[in-house]
Design a protein that fits this description.
Blueprint: E1 3-8, H1 16-29, E2 34-39, H2 46-49, H3 59-63, E3 74-75, E4 81-83, H4 99-104, E5 112-117, H5 123-130, E6 134-139, H6 143-158, E7 162-171, H7 180-187, E8 191-196, H8 200-206, H9 211-214, H10 219-232, H11 245-252
Parallel strand pairs: 1-5, 1-6, 2-4, 2-5, 6-7, 7-8
Antiparallel strand pairs: 3-4
Helix pairs in contact: 1-10
Amino acid sequence: MTRFILVASAKGGTGKTTTALNLAAAMKHFGKDVIVVDANLNTPNIALQLGASKLQTTLHDVLRGKKHITEALYLHNSNLKIIPGSISLNDLNTNPDTLRLALSALEGITDFVIIDSAAGLGRETLAAIDSTDEVIVVTNPEIPAVTDALKIIKIAQRLNKQVNGVIVTRTKYSNYELTFKNIETILEKPILGVIEEDNKFKIALKKKDILTNLFPNSKNANNYKRIAANLLGENYTEQLKEESFLYHLFRKFGLIK
């Protein structure tokens, strides 16, 4: 049985797309087959982040009834499967109402479908929530982001969706940030994991790859794997390597992985 999990955030810039990709990569670490769907129809970013902006078929073609969803399936060089959206201005007004039907065609052909939705609470976000079984909310440790996260949670609950919990991203462990206890109290949902602010995300973006693939033993990669293990009911032991200058140098020349 395929599990459909939506990664959602009502506020832009929280790291939602980055989380969708890294969570999917972390699930692959446990041997799961995963497809990431870019359901952000107006401003899709997954293809751009992974260096695949020129594509013949996208989710937009599927939603217009021109293609079957499997025809929009691509394999990234990291072996992660993606169904990207179109970045063309001509596709801005694509109707999201057929998203649920389109995604249903993925049932049984993969273990997990991770859906990256648009930020905000608009029509395409509501269509994405309606198209899934489970929801994970991404937020930052600040009042505006947490307040918006609460709105997503309430809407998902009204639509009878299972809200698994919250991933807190871009944290710096600053005194100016909300405490994790406060976040859980406000949202009434458990924190599944914490992702720290890290320049490695920018390195991954520049290299058109995913942090969990490029830096598999980094702290944040381990954090994503721990979240994935929790969702899968698996045990996970961290595999940290000291990322010294020599470690980066050896890795650059392919002496270690």
